[in-house]
Amino acid sequence: MSARLRLAELVDAQSIHHVMTVAGAAAAAPDLYYVDTLEFVADHIAREGFIVVAEVDSQIVGFQIVRRPGSADDNLGLEIGLSGADLDAVAHVESAAVLPTHRGGGIQRALVTEAERRLVELGYRWLMCTVHPDNVHSLRNLRALGFEVIGTRDKYGGYRRHILLKTVG
User: Fold this and answer.
1) 123 neighbors 90 (Cβ within 8 angstroms)
2) Is residue 97 within 8 Å of 50, Cβ to Cβ?
3) How many Cβ atoms sit within 10 Å of the Cβ of residue 151?
4) Which residues contact 91 (CB under 8 A, 6 or more apart)?
5) Helix, strand, or coil here: 2?
6) pTM here?
7) What pLDDT is attached to residue 33?
8) What confidence score (pLDDT) does residue 28 get?
9) Residue 155's pLDDT band (boundaries 50, 70, 90)?
């Protein structure tokens, strides 16, 4: 069954957070997937960026959060030596999850592809993200979409993460 992709609205925040919570509970290790707050989800719908959701039978079964960090001190563009106006052309492909009952059908790749399409239209040049080194499924999906691991660092208060980059513009 194929999923319908669309931009999230504020009324979707609770459903997105539910998918995130289920994904966190299903993770093989506690640091494999970080569960953000409901406020974080709502902020990315309203102000920080956007979220693409995947729906099956009108139920949200997956999502991809995108952040536009601009001049924030955690802009991953700093990892590749960007500065000034170039930092405004960096987008973070942040948290993503698909309900366990809908995994394996290409939903994550479709979500990232749709997010990338929108970001290219908006003029972004660098797409960056972080992934736990043991998250083989996300790493495989992102690499298949052209992202490359450019380093591994402690992020988010001590969580080990690969930093991935895709140049699009």
Assistant:
1) no
2) no
3) 11
4) 49, 66, 67, 68, 69, 119, 124, 126, 127, 128
5) coil
6) 0.94
7) 86
8) 80
9) confident
In the numeric block, which tokens belong to residue 106?
Answer: 């290409």
- How far is residue 128's CA from residue 2's CA, in Å, rounded to a whole number? 27
Residue linked to tokens 């040049």: 125
- Tokens 């601009």 sit on residue: 70
User: Tens digits of per-residue pLDDT, 17-44?
Assistant: 999 999 999 888 777 888 899 999 999 9
Show the tokens assigned to 112. 């990232």
- Per-residue model confidence as pLDDT tens digits over 52-83: 999 999 999 999 999 999 999 999 999 999 99
Cα distances from 137 to residues 7, 124, 132, 153, in angstroms, run 24, 25, 10, 19
Cβ–Cβ < 8 Å for 77, 87:
yes
